[in-house]
Amino acid sequence: MTSSKTQQNSLKAIFLDRDGVLNRKLPENNYVRCPSEFDLLPEVLPALRIFRQLGFALVVITNQRGIARGLMSDNDLHKVHDFMNSLLRDAGLSLEGIYYCPHDKADYCDCRKPAPGMILAATEDLNIDLSSSFMVGDSASDIKAAQNAGVRSVLISQTAEETDADLVFRSLLGFAEFLLDRNCS
Ligand SMILES: [Mg+2]
Ligand SMILES: [Zn+2]
User: Is the pLDDT of residue 160 over 90?
Assistant: First the structure.
């Protein structure tokens, strides 16, 4: 009885890297500092809708070292995330959480990906079942963070790059459709 209750309460989640997965990534060392620089990628909304339909919680896991480098403030980031949330809300969607690391590499924090800190914090905060969840990203550090957290990894990539991700798709929608197909079979 007790164990089945725990089971019912635990959520399955899609952990989502932000830049390059949800929104257009700016050139290296450039940061999305204001809402006008935040461009949702095509087909992201239908992909998120499918994840929702399949019962996944949506949690953003993002490195934002532009803050540590003094190029933007926490408040700038919150404005960007308010804007992102409003775009999702307009589409009838919402996120369970947004976790960001404001540190730089030299801070040796436990949250900056490839460290698993943000994924593990979200897992604890939201009572997520990692074994039925996925971490989706567009870089090697996302895949490494997933492995460090013990959750399945999904790489979004347009090139046939070398990777040890569990799954690789050309777009977030490609992954969503894969899950949808698997759910129906
Ligand atoms: Mg990225
Ligand atoms: Zn950090």
Answer: no
